[in-house]
């Protein structure tokens, strides 16, 4: 039986960020993922400027640019009734496919000594109070293996069974070409019962990833093309961007179970990224939360020896970095699927540059991560 310090379930941004940080601090880490890489994944693909330092530390940022990630200089928001505004982006943002991002992250953690099992699932997980006995079905190589680990970290994106799912949405995406207006810009087009995110990817391809309420999807006969075509007719700004566009990939879809709870530690298992909490897709913060929360969890685990102290530190830092962003995302996400509300919000933002700047800043997580946090007599003090 192999013995390791941590088993991480999920090799996306949260899992790889956590694994790389743990490995650099001397931990023995295994990551498993049900997929094999490179893989396509339904995602907006927006990497905010707050991630540059972390990805540079991992040696990823420059490689993304070398392999064609598109620099994003503007953020545009529109409403179906005609309002639009340009949101300032301070620093360098990127548009990149998850196929490229996740492959580079996976290669990065392998280079730090992390063992990565692609095409693998946990079949049995037993917690004896001092650690976990785990059986892994590595179906990608048609073998099973057992390991002993002190910590299990869930970054799979699956929510806790105890979470109350308040609403079901679908994320649906495809790649397009011949969309010159989308290059160098990330766009959010607000529509009835949904929104359309448009983001440039490598090779002059453009990712059209929209979120639709499940009830609206049913009304449109579960036809991804019909949903988008109707919204293109509804929103004049979206029409201008897509009128000459050509779809070059099949539609891919994923369920988005909207939930309000945050679960960072449950039944002895740590959580980061989407597995810990849902952040509304409307502000494009999913990749950022994954990368940064994975790093925060790793720092808490390596700085303290007791799980109680680790959880206090991780909870404090998680709230400090993401609570404001999550509140804004939830509020905006509930409003912009209503045309009258989207119109009002966008017109208000367009009247005041400082308001737009503040809103854009508030929509991003706090990205300054201290390497050490002291915990003394119930108070958390930054060092």
How would you describe this structure to a colleague?
This protein has helices spanning 13-24, 52-57, 61-66, 98-111, 214-219, 224-234, 236-242, 286-303, 307-335, 339-350, 353-362; strands spanning 2-9, 29-33, 46-47, 70-79, 84-95, 115-118, 121-127, 132-138, 143-154, 165-177, 185-191, 194-200, 206-213, 246-247, 252-259, 265-266, 269-271, 373-376, 379-382. The protein is α+β, with helices and mostly antiparallel strands and 383 residues long. It has one domain: FAD/NAD(P)-binding domain (3-Layer(bba) Sandwich). Helix 1 (13-24) packs parallel to helix 4 (98-111), helix 1 runs parallel beside helix 8 (286-303) and helix 8 packs antiparallel against helix 9.
Broad CATH class:
Alpha Beta
Radius of gyration: 21 Å
CATH homologous group name: FAD/NAD(P)-binding domain
CA distance, first residue to last residue: 39 Å
Q: Give the number of DSSP strands.
A: 19
CATH fold-type name: FAD/NAD(P)-binding domain
Largest sheet geometry? 9 strands, mixed
> What's the domain count?
1
Q: How does the overall form come out from the CA principal axes?
A: globular
SS strand fraction:
25-35%
- Mean pLDDT comes to 90
CATH architecture: 3-Layer(bba) Sandwich
Point out poorly predicted stretches: 370-383
Decide which structural class fits the backbone: alpha+beta
Count of DSSP-assigned helices = 11
Order of helices and strands: EHEEHHEEHEEEEEEEEHHHEEEEHHHHEE
Instruction: Please give the share of residues in helix.
Output: 25-40%
């Amino acid at each position: 039986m192999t013995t390791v310090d941590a088993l991480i379930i999920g090799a996306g941004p949260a899992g790889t960020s956590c694994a790389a940080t743990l490995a650099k601090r001397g931990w023995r880490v295994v990551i498993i993922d049900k997929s094999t890489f490179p893989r396509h994944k339904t995602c907006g693909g927006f990497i905010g400027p707050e991630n540059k330092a972390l990805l540079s530390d991992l040696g990823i940022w420059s490689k993304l640019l070398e392999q064609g990630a598109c620099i994003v200089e503007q953020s545009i928001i529109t409403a179906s009734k005609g309002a639009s505004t340009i949101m300032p982006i301070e620093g360098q943002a990127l548009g990149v496919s998850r196929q490229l991002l996740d492959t580079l992250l996976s290669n990065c953690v392998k280079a730090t000594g992390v063992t990565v099992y692609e095409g693998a699932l946990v079949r049995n997980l037993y917690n004896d109070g001092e650690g976990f006995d785990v059986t892994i079905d590595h179906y990608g190589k048609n073998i099973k293996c057992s390991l002993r680990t002190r910590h299990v970290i869930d970054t799979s994106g699956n929510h806790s069974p105890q979470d109350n799912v308040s609403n079901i949405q679908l994320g649906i995406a495809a790649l397009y070409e011949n969309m010159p207006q989308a290059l160098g810009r990330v766009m959010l087009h607000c529509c009835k019962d949904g929104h359309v995110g448009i983001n440039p990817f490598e090779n002059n391809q453009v990712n059209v990833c929209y979120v639709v309420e499940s009830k609206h999807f049913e009304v449109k006969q579960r036809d991804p093309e019909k949903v988008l075509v109707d919204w293109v007719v509804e929103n004049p700004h979206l029409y201008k961007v897509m009128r000459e566009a050509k779809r070059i990939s099949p539609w891919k879809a994923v369920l988005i179970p909207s939930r309000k709870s945050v679960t960072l530690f449950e039944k002895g298992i740590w959580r980061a990224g989407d597995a810990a909490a849902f952040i509304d897709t409307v502000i494009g913060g999913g990749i950022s939360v994954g990368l940064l929360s994975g790093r925060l969890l790793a720092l808490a685990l390596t700085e303290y020896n007791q799980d109680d102290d680790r959880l206090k530190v991780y909870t404090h830092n998680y709230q400090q970095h993401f609570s404001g962003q999550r509140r804004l995302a939830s509020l905006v996400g509930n409003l912009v699927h209503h045309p009258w509300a989207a119109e009002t919000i966008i017109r208000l933002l367009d009247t005041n540059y400082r308001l737009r700047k503040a809103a854009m800043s508030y929509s991003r997580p706090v990205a300054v991560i201290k390497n050490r946090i002291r915990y003394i007599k119930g108070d958390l003090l930054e060092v």
